[in-house]
Amino acid sequence: MRQFLVCVLLVLTVSTGLGQQPGSYQTSQPYAAIDKSRSLPRSTPERQGISSSDILDFVDTADRQIDTMNSFMLVRHGYVVAEGWWGPYDAATPHILYSLSKSFTSTAVGLAIAEGKMSLDDEVLKFFPDDAPAEPSANLKAMRVRDLLRMATGNQTEAPILTQDVPWTKTFLAHPVPFKPGTHFLYNSPATYMLSAIVQKVTGMTVCAYLKPRLFEPLGIDNPTWVASPQGISAGAYGLSLRTEDIARFGQLYLQKGKWKGKQLVPSQWVEEATTRQTANGSSPNSDWDQGYGYQFWRSRHNTYRGDGAFGQYCMVIPEFDAVVAITSGVPDMQSVMNLVWNKLLPAMKPNHLPENAVERRKLEAKLAGLVVKLPPGQPTMPLASKVSGKWFSFPENDRGIEAVSFDFNSSTPVLNVRTKGGELRTPIGIGSWRKNPNGFANGLDKFLSVSDPPLVAASGAWSANDVFNVKLVLYQTPFCSALTFKFVGEQLLFDAEHNVSFGSRNLPQLVGQAASTR
Fold first, then answer.
1. DSSP letter string over 109-124?
2. What integer pLDDT is reported at residue 22 of this predicted model?
3. What Cα–Cα distance (Å) separates residue 350 from each residue in 46, 155, 345, 347, 363?
4. How far apart are the C-alpha atoms of 210 and 201, rounded to whole Å?
5. Rounded to whole angstroms, how far apart are CA atoms 318 and 251?
6. What 3-state DSSP class applies to 392?
7. What pLDDT shows up at residue 39?
8. What pLDDT is stored for residue 253 in this prediction?
9. Phi-psi label, residue 493: left if phi above 0, alpha if psi -120 to 50, beta otherwise
10. Tens digit of pLDDT for each residue in 131-189?
């Protein structure tokens, strides 16, 4: 299965903070409510040829089988017929798209070509004469814009572009190109960054700024954020954050061949070329990653196409059934999410209206309104809670920077206190619910690629035994969550943790703390 290949750059991202764009996220302020006057129209499922009971079956199955679903929206014939967010995720908070960002970068390239600022056959080297190697290879000289778009640059491996002092474009151009461009498929995030850099070269604007009046504003997408390189170039391959409905609008635009409310925002020819197979990339009929690749869009089974991002961020476009499915999730097996769409939703899409079914529709609406990320199982309190409340446990030096931990179990809302070199983080914990915090403890997830700093964190906790308190943390702008286990053994605290998904290991080394003092 295809992997998110920029993960090899994680070490640099964690150690240097590269990929972050300070100030682009306003996590300390609540996000503005969605302007419903600019939203997609809503409809009952039956009116658009799909039964509420079939959608309910999909949602029920996803809720049972997919550990961390974040959001889901189904659009049929231009109408939203079902939408749901697993709390603490919500409709108003933007979500990291990871490689789904690539499809937006592709759109910027298509618009720049339509404006005559560049062409598919432009040589990549011509845009960066100051960054070119002294003696570029013949294959590098032959590399064109279309090769970047279709992931056929001729590279055998991704260029390690995430550096602080060397321009990322220069690092990319210095990387070996052993194959003739156009002949070898390699999923290549640095190639998408080069597309972003080219758009900025020819327009004088970042991809994010360039798309704002041409795409984001006409679609009703407010305040998009996109992390940038140290050179001030939108990352292109990742780093864009949007709401679930924004993803659905983008997919609907492509389904409508680039037309929106009577205006052609994106040339229909570009939509056709970008979503058609431009590169062969595999042979398995059962894998959605082996159906071919367009211009930063994946071809999928059932004659469909999509943009997607690490851990299950999806914009699935289904032309034959006039439908769009937008999903955000945090899963290690991305194919499992698409399989549910193919197995549950696709067969349910009928060509004509269906009789209204108020009973089933109310069941679906109740299910969608009550979705929640799985809470830690257990009891709200145990006898040991009052004895350990306020006691600090100090940890030996560790690579997570955690110096000490304490709990306040005597308040109406339990609190996890974590002391680090940077200060003390106080995280209120919901019991039987999620408690949102603008600057809570993130257990290292805040260091992952393109996560905002500080992140928005939601916490929930429960006692699974008299001496074991479990805490679950969700970074609800992202696909990431952490399960923390605190076991009190006499004067020691054993601290274990596991991430739901990760660019590296999901299991973290156990930390053993020693009781220090009470305060």
1. HHHHHHTTS--TT-BG
2. 27
3. 9, 44, 10, 8, 21
4. 11
5. 9
6. strand
7. 87
8. 98
9. beta
10. 999 999 999 999 999 999 999 999 999 999 998 899 999 999 999 999 999 999 999 99
* CATH code, domain with 229: 3.40.710.10
Prior bond of 178 cis (ω within 30°): no
Domain end call among 209, 239, 269: 239
Task: Supply the pLDDT for residue 94.
Answer: 97
pLDDT given at position 517: 60
- For residue 323, the SS3 value is strand
pTM: 0.93
Question: Taking the mean position of all CA atoms in its chain, how far away is CA 321?
Answer: 26
Quick one: tokens of 489? Answer: 């053994």
Structural domain includes residue 415:
yes
What pLDDT is recorded for position 268? 98
- Residue 309 burial class via C-beta count within 10 angstroms: exposed 0-12, middle 13-18, buried 19 and up: buried
Q: Per the structure block, which two tokens stand in for 354?
A: 């269906």
Q: What's the CATH number where 425 sits?
A: 2.40.128.20
The three-class DSSP label of residue 251 is helix
Could you say which residues of the chain have pLDDT below 50?
1-31, 518-519
DSSP state of 363: H
Range of the domain at 419: 384-518
The HSE-up count of residue 132 (CA atoms within 13 Å, CB side) is 16
In 138-211 the beta strands, taken as DSSP E runs, fall at none
Place of tokens 């393109």: 450
How does pLDDT run across 275-284, given as a tens digit for each residue? 999 999 999 9
Burial class of residue 464, CB neighbours in 10 A (0-12, 13-18, 19+)? middle
> Within 10 Å of residue 67's Cβ, how many Cβ atoms?
16
Quick one: CA dihedral 110, 115, 117, 119, positive or negative?
positive
Which of 239, 267, 287 is the C-terminal boundary of a domain? 239
CB 47 within 8 A of CB 353: yes
Please give the Cα distance from 284 to 291 (Å, whole number).
Answer: 8
Rg (CA), the chain: 24
* Contact present, 112 and 153 (Cβ < 8 Å): no
Residue type at 20? Q
Predicted local distance difference test score (pLDDT) of residue 18: 33
State the residue for tokens 């009190």.
488
Q: How far apart are CA 224 and CA 212, in angstroms?
A: 8
